[in-house]
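Team,

Forwarding the record for the chain on the shared tracking sheet. I've put the sequence and predicted structure together so nobody has to dig through attachments.
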Amino acid sequence: MLKRSGAASDGFMFNLQAGNGQVVLTSERYEAKASAVGGIESVKANAPHSERFELRQGSKEPYFVLKAANGQVIGVGEHYSSDSAAQEGMAAVTRAADGAETDDQT
């Protein structure tokens, strides 16, 4: 889902949703809509590659990031109760990105 990231002048962001509507990945904020659309395409291109996911430890709970081939973070997962739950989240991103359509709510 592509949307404004706050006030109209704050830019754009997107969420990748699983089939059940749950958000499984959130983008950074982009200043230009075209850049956000490029980020969506980058998620679709990189999600099938397990090596592009990185499991990280938050202050209390694990989460993951999805990186582009150049190492730039293109999306962040939710916080999870365990590493294995975060790994399931990574798999959910891979499934959701496959054939995902953009719901432009800008």
